[in-house]
Amino acid sequence: DQQVKQNSPSLSVQEGRISILNCDYTNSMFDYFLWYKKYPAEGPTFLISISSIKDKNEDGRFTVFLNKSAKHLSLHIVPSQPGDSAVYFCAASEWGYGNKLVFGAGTILRVKS
Amino acid sequence: DVKVTQSSRYLVKRTGEKVFLECVQDMDHENMFWYRQDPGLGLRLIYFSYDVKMKEKGDIPEGYSVSREKKERFSLILESASTNQTSMYLCASSPSGGGRPSGNTIYFGEGSWLTVV
Fold this sequence. Notes:
Chain A is mainly beta. Chain A has strands spanning about 5, 10-15, 20-25, 30-40, 45-50, 55-60, 60-65, 70-75, 85-95, 100-105, 105-110. Chain B is about 0% helix and about 50% strand. In chain B, the strands form two sheets. In chain B, strands 2, 4, 5, 6, 9, 10 and 11 form a seven-stranded mixed β-sheet that branches. Chain B is globular, with a radius of gyration of 14 Å. The model of chain B has no long low-confidence stretch (mean pLDDT about 90).
């Protein structure tokens, strides 16, 4: 039973438009959420995170929104660029479990120029 | 420059062979992890270690074991490789965080592609 779900396997967006990647979770004990980006043949790299005490966190073109009541978070990329084409993983963690992360299945983002 | 190095990038092994995947980090991190990545399943935690000679099972430990004799090195062992262990294996490390993860201090290696035939 997957505790972190990314229900869209892929997303295609035109360059300059907004990309919205979604993530749902089932474990109400999760209180810290992260997004990772992964290019083929490379390890994931950290993109942005959010604590459960916030509902929004912004870093440049990337914004993560958290809706605790719906157990849902989303990553917005504005404007999307061709270099953003990658696999995006949502991850979550519980307090007291250190850096043990639970990952979603990933969403392949393709940004067309 | 921080580094998590997985010594073998591409391996092909036969069913029943014993396989060692090695991971070394140069950041003096306490925590080390082994994940596998499969299409449609994301990254799943196999084993992790919070200290030398310490190990804990992750979500899918069956068929695997680990060894951490030195702080910088975390090895994943497939005692008897099977075809369903064909996958990409990712090692990661992080400093101890007092229970709070910080994504930008979790570093991944580039991955090891294992094919079991």
